[in-house]
Amino acid sequence: xxxQKQIIECVPNFxxxxxxxxxxQITDAIESxxxxxxxxxDPGEATNRTVVTFVGEPADVVEAAFRGVQKASQLIDMxxxxxxxxxxxATDVCPLIPVSxxxxxxxxxxxxxxxxxxxxxxxxxxxxxxxxAFTEPRKxxxxxxxxxxxxxxxxxxxxxxxPDFGARAFDEDVARTGCTAVGARDFLIAVNYNLNTxxxxxxxxxxxxxxxxxxxxxxxGSPVGKPMKDENGNTxxxxxxxxxxxxxxxxxxxxxxxxxxxxxxxxxxxPLHVAFDEVCRCAQNRGIRVTGTEIxxxxxxxxxxxxxxxxxxxxxxxxxxxxxxxxxxxxxSMGLSDLKPFNPREKVIxxxxxxxxxxxxxxxxxxxxxxxxxxxRESPAPGGGTISAYMGALGxxxxxxxxxxxxxxxxxxxxxxxxxxxxxxxxxxxxxxxHLVDEDTEAFNRIxxxxxxxxxxxxxxxxxxxxxxxxxxxxxQVPLHTMQASFKAFEICKxxxxxxxxxxxxxxxxxxxxxxxxVLGAGLNVKINAASLKDRETADKLIGEADELIKKANDExxxxxxxxxxxx
Length: 568
What we know:
alpha+beta, 13 strands, single chain
């Protein structure tokens, strides 16, 4: 599987929306954590509340969240706070949200640990809500915040209402900081669907068709009939077709069109592309067309990847194509550039997190000529391990190419999904090997850094020796990973040589040759680096695994080339 970095989002709400100097000190504390990217700061004067959004890897985000909460507790005095929004603390809420490579359950565990740390180190009482809640009622934030700040003195002394962490009597410190709700929730997407009408009433009708809440049931089934009530006096609702969605219709003066404005509160239940298709269906039933989609704020990359693959599958086309191509399909299919150009680099969280300088220095981002020239220079890296990983990527790419050609071959329409699955597997493998291209060079650089450590004292020498051994072990494990990944390319190349487009059988053969070269080449790196390991038991085990893969690779390549030769 391709390596996926874990990314989470944090959206703390601080009870200060008017004093920009205070807000800046809080966001400075958040940004003091390396690896965290501040995406948005939204102060509200009437609410006297600021919503801050930042993202990064889990450990970094959790640390930044703690620092933000800590700084807010030092600067905001809740005894002086007044605003239109419900609140109970200097940091009112602090939710963690999974973006990629991590589950909601994992975010909930992180949120609980964060709440415990806040309570222990800042003495701020903390409630855990939504997915992080310890009890069913506290999944609802309103239950945790019941009575708001003004009720804290009573809540903290009432059994059953005490916080999950940091329970204590109401005193001057708590009066100043209030309490904080720490939680975990799913990612929310705010999206507007553009309509070829100016009618707000019709836009609202479509919104009521799809939103989970639906519309009131009216007497006689008439749209102007009186809303019906149940025995408790509550309005009876006819549910809409999309779970985890809220929607209304409105008219936008700026664009001169009506829109269905929607919040998707759980993209695992209702993905963006599913909502788009359903709004299109309901609009068409009312004689209206959806002309495009406007995404408000940021989205995880998987939202576009899932959408692109969905629309490709509807066309009976292979989904095993490069990621950028899949994203382009999603953009065009949902009309994301209808009102203004949609730039994924500005709207996708993972892309915003990429360090421009880091990306610039990646070997995989060089041109083919630039890569060859960089390899030829007198520096020892990139070297054989890096080239082996790249050959493995090319082997996987060739097998994937044959799969895509086969999926789109005239007369083979009934087999498109069979080859699409092979191509998708090949794209994942290629992505993994391209990551290893730079990882192998990084492993060599770690060894060089270890050799550069000071060696003046006995302690220095011991630390330097340990660092060299750790770096050498890593530099042995990386090419072994390259061998394991490259070996997987044989499965794809063999299947394509046997079942794929016969006009491309030679390409499957070249793919097998590249995969064999990758396995054998990376094996040389395993052996030369293992020779420097003092732990000979570990070294012998790594070499043994490499020798076994080399033997298997030779056998696989021989079998695939026999198939290829028989079809030429």
